[in-house]
Amino acid sequence: MAARPRIKDVAEYAGVSPKTVSNVINNFEHVSDRTREVVREAIDALGYRVNIAGRQLRQGRTGMITLAVPELDVAYFSELAKHVMTEADQRGLTVLLHQTGGSRERELAALHGFDAQFSDGVILSPLALQPRDLATRDRRLPVVLLGERPAEGSTDHVAIDNVRAAREATAHLLERGRRRIAVVGGRARGRQGTDRLRTDGYREALKAAHVPFDSDLVVPVDAYHWRDGARAAVALLERDPQPDALLCLNDHLALGALRALHEKGVGVPKDVDVVGFDDIEASRFSVPTLTTVSPDKKEIARAAVALLVGRVDDPDGGPLRDHVVGHEVIVRESTGG
Q1: Per-residue b/e over 243-253, b at no fewer than 16 CB within 10 Å?
Q2: Cβ pair 337, 169 in contact under 8 A
Q3: Which one, out of 60, 116, 237, 328, has a CA that is 20 to 30 A from the CA of 167?
Q4: pLDDT score at 57
């Protein structure tokens, strides 16, 4: 049996130093793109694999990180999990995946390291955490929050600018002449979660266009699933006057709304425009295809893993970071695209 290739073998094959190979494996930023490509080609050619067990023994770490998300059957989270796993794999890390169900109890368990004996840190997408939960957490466990942030300056955080994204999506509808725009999944008052931030962006766009805000057009939902979007759309069709556009705060809601509108004989976009959030794969295959806000999921994963690894390597490594990831409004058939 041939000996397992070592970093030294990869270095010789690529014509670089072992230190450079190590820098590429650990995704250090100061390596040039050309050198990174040469080293990765050598790694693939030789079939080199990171010796995780040896790294763990040297560094006193498990080589595992935890990703805790509300629901894996919501496509945004399953797609995001895929990107996090890909990013972690490139660093020789394993991802422990947990579903919290949006339960505060399970989110607290993640925050305090329910896998502390196995995991070096946690990437958490919270729904129910309170500011006091973050204030009392165990600071020895590195944590990066995604999406919602219950308290400013509480931990490293990665998200899109939800206010701006909703403002841009609403502005697109206004530019199309829509004036009775309903927010499916919105929240006009209450805690500063993603639903509230996106509703704030919607209100900013209305104000800029001198369109009065109507609180009756902000429609909360029990959950962010297809059936909830369908129910909300049916209820809105019973209004007089009916809305002429639906800004749905995730794509599952929007896809459910599309189905309900179709069953009621309402034309999209002839009679009603529909916009979603998240740009899940299904949004590209619906009939009509769905206009949606597309967050850069790959960058969310890259930034979250990088921030977490940085805290694992250096727990006192500077101030907490708030990383804002880009987004784009993808115009498709549901708004005439």
Answers
A1: bbbbbbbbbbb
A2: no
A3: 237
A4: 42
